[in-house]
Specification:
The chain has 581 residues and is of the alpha+beta class. Helix content is 41%, strand content 15%. The mean pLDDT is 95.
Length: 581
């Protein structure tokens, strides 16, 4: 395996210093990505520190297959989440993974806190601590533009940056990567903001060696050929917004804070509709042949200038469409794109933002909130009011909006309305009201994310086959899926390609790189990583016994019928047993 993967760059913002460690055994054991990141996080984290204190740590990690195979395009970020107070993990595409690898690192560890705003300029030879005081307060798009003009770097470059939301410690703020990708979930933007870290620029020009060039080319061509199949084609044609209509048709599209399971304007904001009316271009992450990133062209008139327009480009995916569209009753596609654009520029996670705003809209309807606190008269479908409210959250306009910036769990605990505050383990829910497996994923997943064990997919399989599995069988399938995902997220391959990267294919991919593992070895590595994650969560205070279930999820039919709380908790209990076995 190429030796550059074993290099861990450690950066101390408090001391404005850096060092490099060689961790060959760690990478050989855990492949990189999540596996290595979890171990480095455990080593470096001050568990008694506040998530927004200098004792928190950010680990960025890539894997053995990064910059070598199709879809091995993700960087994993691990940190203590200021939203949940517990383990935080987020993945981003773009160019960041290849840039880290070509700079000669397998992982980057950032700790401490600067005494004034800085951004990091990282390459093969050094780390430079650049003054970012002039950038502080800038939105993410302007920040990226200024840094690009300043950097002038040759080679492969990536820019990760935060917006005003991260600077002001909004607990669900994101970090934007290459304008259209994000470390979205669980508040890495606030962690960077607490460290006065405005951005990270990574560039590299190294080549990556493989031991068996003939074997490497053979397996590469096999995977590339499979990438042109029907399963990946759907991501190219419509991207994840292809989910809007199928989920709406089966009654699984959360709408208006999950008061409904269908949206009467779903087609207007569907992948088909946006592609036919607004699609401007498609983009791909590095080493991805599919190009699933869909960019809409938003044409807006200049004020008092008839026949003059500016065209802006906005990336759209299923989750922003759900959270900022159906959840808020927005069926106007241009209004939805304007709201997505503003959320991105401020540096907020779209999912959490939409869920917080939908809760506030219902709470205002019910009279739980006072109009003088909310300031803006939030109404379903009124995107202009939601754009105002998003800016009030980031400004922390009053006590109410300061609580809104802490997440839906915190604001509902303060003002009331917890029964319809849609979060799990403190993390706002994603857009799948498909059935028990989806909600079991939200409860048991290390990130409380739909990406953990894909319960939404299992629900849809049961619906298609017309066969409901027992709680124990659902738990076993979720555990096996989540264990294998730890391997994929250690390598680090995009989970869209999971049907290509089965255990036998992963084994074949690793052999030309000099890493020979059996399929059984790989499965065992995944289980070990999953158990390690949950041990960290317990050490940080997480307990399944204390997780809150919003009553709303039991009130609205799923495609598999009303949720049965007893059976749902049976799935959770079985999953816990598997973690301990």
């Amino acid at each position: 395996m190429d030796d550059s993967l074993f290099r861990v760059l450690k950066i101390d913002l408090s001391k404005m210093d850096f060092s490099v460690e060689i961790r060959k055994e760690l990478f050989l054991r855990y492949l990189g990505g999540v596996g290595v990141g979890v171990k480095l996080f455990e080593e470096e984290l001050d568990k008694n520190s506040d998530p927004l204190g200098p004792g928190n740590v950010i680990v960025l990690a890539v894997g053995a297959m990064t910059a070598l195979y199709p879809f091995a395009s993700k960087t994993v970020a691990i940190f203590r989440s200021p939203l949940t107070g517990n383990y935080g993990e987020s993945h981003a595409g773009g160019r960041s993974a290849a840039a880290i690898r070509m700079a000669g690192y397998g992982a980057i560890v950032i700790k401490g806190a600067a005494d004034h705003p800085v951004y990091l300029d990282i390459d093969e030879e050094s780390v430079r601590f650049r003054d970012a005081r002039a950038l502080w307060g800038m939105k993410t798009d302007i920040t990226g533009r200024v840094i690009r003009e300043r950097a002038g770097k040759e080679g492969f470059r990536s820019i990760i940056r935060i917006g005003p939301a991260g600077e002001r410690l909004i607990r669900y703020s994101s970090a934007v990567v290459e304008t259209y990708r994000h470390f979205g979930r669980l508040g890495i933007g606030a962690v960077m903001g607490s460290k006065k870290l405005k951005a990270i620029v990574i560039s590299g020009r190294r080549t990556i060696k493989v031991e068996d060039k003939v074997g490497y080319r053979r397996i590469y061509e096999k995977i590339f050929s499979e990438s042109k199949g029907e399963f990946m084609k759907k991501y190219h044609d419509l991207g994840t917004p292809m989910n809007v209509m199928p989920l709406n048709e089966i009654g699984a599209l959360p709408t208006m804070n999950l008061k409904h399971n269908r949206f009467d304007k779903a087609y207007d904001i569907s992948g088909e509709s946006i592609a036919s009316k607004r699609l401007g271009r498609r983009l791909a992450c590095s080493h991805c042949p599919t190009a699933c990133i869909h960019i809409a062209a938003l044409r807006e008139p200049y004020e008092e200038e008839p026949y003059f327009y500016k065209t802006e480009f906005v990336s759209y995916d299923y989750e922003p469409i759900y959270a900022l569209g159906s959840m808020l009753g927005i069926g106007d596609v241009d209004g939805l794109l304007k709201l997505i654009k503003e959320v991105d520029r401020l540096g907020l996670d779209a999912i959490s933002t939409g869920v917080v705003l939908s809760w506030a809209t219902e709470a205002l309807e019910r009279g739980i909130l006072r109009k003088e606190d909310v300031i803006v008269d939030l109404k379903w479908g009124d995107y202009e009011k939601y754009i105002e409210a998003v800016n009030l959250i980031v400004k922390g306009e009053n006590e109410f909006y300061k609580y809104m910036g802490l997440g839906v769990e915190a604001v509902a605990a303060k003002y009331g309305g917890l029964d319809f505050a849609l979060s799990f383990g403190g993390n706002e829910m994603a857009g799948y009201h498909t059935g028990p497996a989806a909600y079991a994923t939200n409860i048991t997943g290390a990130r409380h994310s739909h990406l953990d064990s894909a319960g939404y997919s299992l629900d849809q399989e049961m619906l298609k086959e017309g066969k409901m599995l027992s709680p124990a069988d659902i738990a076993i399938k979720l555990f096996e899926e989540e264990s294998w995902r730890q391997v994929l997220c250690s390598l680090v391959v995009c989970l869209f390609s999971r049907k290509i990267y089965k255990p036998d294919v992963v084994r074949e991919c690793l052999e030309p790189l000099g890493l020979r593992l059996s399929e059984e070895n790989l499965v065992e590595i995944g289980r070990e990583i999953l158990i390690s994650k949950n041990k960290i969560k317990e050490d940080l205070g997480f307990s399944f016994d204390r997780i809150r279930l919003p009553r709303r999820i039991f009130e609205i039919d799923t495609p598999l019928g009303r949720l049965d709380e007893g059976k749902l908790m049976e799935i959770v209990r079985k999953f816990r047993e598997l973690l301990k076995s």
